Amino acid sequence: MGITYNPISIAQQLQGVSKPAEARPEHIVQSNERWQNLDAHSSISADDKKTLEERLGKTREMISTALKEAQFIFLTFGTSIGFEFLKTGRIVNNCHRLPGAEFKQVAISAETAYNALESGIKTVLSANPQARFLLSVSPIRHIRHGAIENARSKARLIEVCDRLERTFSEVQYLPVFEFVMDELRDYRFYNDQDLIHLNELGLQAVKSKVKQSLIHTDSHELMDRIEKWNKMKNHKIVNPESERTRKFLEKIESENASINAVLKSYFNECN
With contact defined as beta carbons under 8 Å apart, do 91 and 75 qualify? Predict the structure, then answer.
């Protein structure tokens, strides 16, 4: 359903594992000459209502299938400040720039968020007992709500993650928020345009920490090979007809075949 920040909307999507729910008619709206769904990100939109409804249906089926098959489900909570659509009294995923008078800003309590997510996780586990959940709180500050409200919002999310981890053996908390706040305090890790979002250096630091903590060292070499291969694949070709380019493309294909062979062997061992 696109980027989702608040825990209620995330919990609603988890519930879709059992039976893909149809879009609420009141939540399908027209904004900026596009049809949008208040329960989905603006990246899921269409020129007409029928096309949007069809796209939403396919997306929900895809979510249901993915949740039933996934080994690991990563949930990152951005904010516990939500917006209630006054017409339905429900927290929405995205306001799509509709008039502010149609919504009410609410602070989602830790209790409300926990109850919704507990139910969502139970629903997924009943359909997919092998699933494991990895939770994190986004370190990106929502300054538009104010520094104090942002801090309170993050605190509620951390409390929810703590309760879920203590409730379910299938849930693990990843302290990405704490790592960024405590160890990446230097502004060289941040985008110089807003000093809020992490830049590439900051993202690599987080990636490295997650890699060391969660992924077996036997896989690190293969991950490095895949990353190097991706860089080669995305390299801009200046002279496609040259002998040097031909050899370069052959090298890419050869490495691709080699990596695929390693992956196939690995998955055969797992099965």
Answer: no
> Tell me: the pLDDT tens digits for 158-209?
999 999 999 999 999 999 999 999 999 999 999 999 999 999 999 999 999 9
Instruction: Give the list of residues 6+ apart from residue 18 with CB closer than 8 angstroms, or none.
Output: 64, 123, 126, 127
Nearest to 73 by CA among 161, 119, 114, 14: 14
Distance CA 170, CA 166 (A): 10
Per this entry, what is the length of the chain? 271
Residues 6+ apart with CB under 8 A from 226: 259
23 within 8 A of 37, measured Cβ to Cβ: yes
**What pTM does this model have?**
0.86
> By C-alpha distance, which of 40, 66, 63, 77 is closest to 164?
77
